C-alpha cells in the first residue's frame, strides 16, 4: 500500500511538471507571443497588398480617362493640329489641387484623376453633368443649343434617367420648362448645386485618397557615387 501511494505521488508530480512546460501552455492556453507577432506581420502585409491594389486600380482607371480625353480631342481637332499628351504631374503641381477645387478642375490630369475617383464612389454622373453644362454654355448655334439641352435633360435630369443627378424636384420642373426655349442659363441652378455637392463632399475625400497622396510624394533623392 505504501508503494502504491509513492507511485501515485510520483505520477502527480510528473503531471504537474508536464503542465508547467512551455509546450503544455501552448496546448492549454492557446497561442504563444510569437504567434501574435506573426499575425501582426500578416495583417501589415495584407494592408500593403490592398494599398498596392487600390493604387494600381486607380492608375488603370486614370489611363482609361486620359486615353478617352486624348481620343476625343483628336476627333474634334483639325488635321495637322498638335496632339496633346498628358504627363504625370509633379508633386508640386499635384499639391496645388488641394488649394482650391477649381485648381483641380483646371488640370487635365487632375480632372481625369477626379473622374476616376468619382467612378470608384459610383457618382461619376456629377462630374459628367458638370462637364456637359460647361460644353453647353459654349454652344453658339440655337439649333444645337436646343438639341444639347434635350440630351442633357434626358441623360441627367428626368426621372429614371441613366445618369440621374441628385437635385430637388422644383429645379427639375424649372429645367423641364426652360428647355422648350433653351438658353445658356437652362442648367445654371442645377450645375451650381452639383458643383457644391462635389466641392463639399467628394473633393475632400479625393484629397485624402491613397492615389492623391502618392501623387504628392516627392521621389527619394538618389546619391550618385563620385568616381575617385
UniProtKB/TrEMBL annotation:
Interacts with GNAQ. Does not interact with GNAI1 and GNAI3. Interacts with EIF2B5. Interacts with PRKG1 (isoform alpha). It comes from Nothoprocta ornata. Residues 25-46 have a biased composition (Basic and acidic residues). Residues 20-50 are annotated as: Disordered. This is Regulator of G-protein signaling 2. It comes from the Eukaryota. CDD domains: RGS_RGS2. One of its GO terms (cellular component) is nucleolus. Gene3D superfamilies: 1.10.196.10, Regulator of G-protein Signalling 4, domain 2. It is found in: Cell membrane; Cytoplasm; Nucleus, Nucleolus. The keyword Nucleus applies. Residues 100-216 form the RGS domain. PROSITE patterns: RGS. Keywords: Cell cycle, Cell membrane, Cytoplasm, GTPase activation, Membrane, Nucleus, Phosphoprotein, Signal, Signal transduction inhibitor, Translation regulation. Regulates G protein-coupled receptor signaling cascades. Inhibits signal transduction by increasing the GTPase activity of G protein alpha subunits, thereby driving them into their inactive GDP-bound form. It is involved in the negative regulation of the angiotensin-activated signaling pathway. Plays a role in the regulation of blood pressure in response to signaling via G protein-coupled receptors and GNAQ. Plays a role in regulating the constriction and relaxation of vascular smooth muscle. Binds EIF2B5 and blocks its activity, thereby inhibiting the translation of mRNA into protein. SMART domains: RGS. InterPro entries: RGS, RGS2_RGS, RGS_sf, RGS_subdom1/3, RGS_subdomain_2. GO terms for molecular function: GTPase activator activity.
Amino acid at each position: 500500500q505504501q508503494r502504491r501511494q509513492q507511485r501515485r505521488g510520483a505520477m502527480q508530480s510528473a503531471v504537474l511538471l508536464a503542465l508547467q512546460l512551455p509546450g503544455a501552455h501552448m496546448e492549454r492556453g492557446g497561442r504563444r507571443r510569437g504567434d501574435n507577432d506573426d499575425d501582426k506581420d500578416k495583417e501589415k502585409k495584407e494592408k500593403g497588398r490592398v494599398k498596392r491594389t487600390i493604387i494600381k486600380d486607380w492608375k488603370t482607371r486614370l489611363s482609361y480617362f486620359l486615353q478617352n480625353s486624348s481620343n476625343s480631342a483628336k476627333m474634334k481637332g483639325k488635321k495637322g493640329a498638335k496632339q496633346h499628351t498628358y504627363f504625370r504631374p509633379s508633386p508640386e503641381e499635384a499639391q496645388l489641387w488641394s488649394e482650391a477645387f477649381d485648381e483641380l478642375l483646371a488640370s487635365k490630369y487632375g480632372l481625369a484623376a477626379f473622374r476616376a475617383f468619382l467612378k470608384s464612389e459610383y457618382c461619376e454622373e456629377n462630374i459628367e453633368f458638370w462637364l456637359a453644362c460647361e460644353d453647353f454654355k459654349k454652344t453658339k448655334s440655337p439649333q444645337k443649343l436646343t438639341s444639347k439641352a434635350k440630351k442633357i435633360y434626358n441623360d441627367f435630369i428626368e426621372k429614371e434617367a441613366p445618369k440621374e443627378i441628385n437635385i430637388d424636384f422644383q429645379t427639375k420642373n424649372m429645367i423641364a420648362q426652360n428647355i422648350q426655349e433653351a438658353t445658356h442659363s437652362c442648367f445654371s441652378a442645377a450645375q451650381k448645386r452639383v458643383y457644391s455637392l462635389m466641392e463639399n463632399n467628394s473633393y475632400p475625400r479625393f484629397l485624402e485618397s491613397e492615389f492623391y497622396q502618392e501623387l504628392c510624394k516627392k521621389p527619394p533623392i538618389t546619391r550618385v557615387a563620385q568616381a575617385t
